[in-house]
Write a structure and sequence with these properties.
Rossmann fold
Length: about 120
């Protein structure tokens, strides 16, 4: 999980210049599993969508337990956006992100009692 820019992405450095320009021209795009998201956690149809070999968002969101791993305050905006979506059921992160005012309700959304199902049946 991260942003789709040179600093926050494993994907961005391997893109062509044309793809980088197209993605940079769009709004800030957090990403997870090579899926780009808007600020509300909705998946975006980007220039890369058709060419990406990754799990589709609908399939990801239908998995009963999806654990995201992301940390570092530089990824806080991306984490916040992805958490607003429906794909993540658990998040492993560091104390700085967990206590960040930028993610005020992340812990409430993901916190559950042991034994509770991750997703409602």
């Amino acid at each position: 999980m991260g942003s789709c820019d040179a600093a926050g992405s494993q994907l961005f450095p391997i893109l062509s210049e044309k793809d980088r320009r197209e993605l940079s021209a769009s709004t800030s795009s957090p990403k997870m599993c090579s899926i780009l998201f808007d600020a509300n956690g909705e998946p975006l149809n980007s220039p890369l969508t058709r060419r990406t070999m990754a799990i589709p968002y609908a399939d990801l969101a239908s998995i009963p337990e999806v654990i995201a791993v992301a940390g570092g305050v530089a990824k806080t905006a991306a984490i916040r956006a992805v958490l607003r979506g429906q794909a993540i059921t658990s998040l492993v992160t560091d104390a700085d992100v967990a206590s960040s005012p930028a993610c005020p309700d992340a812990h409430r959304r993901l916190l559950r009692t042991a034994g509770e199902p991750s997703r409602p049946s």
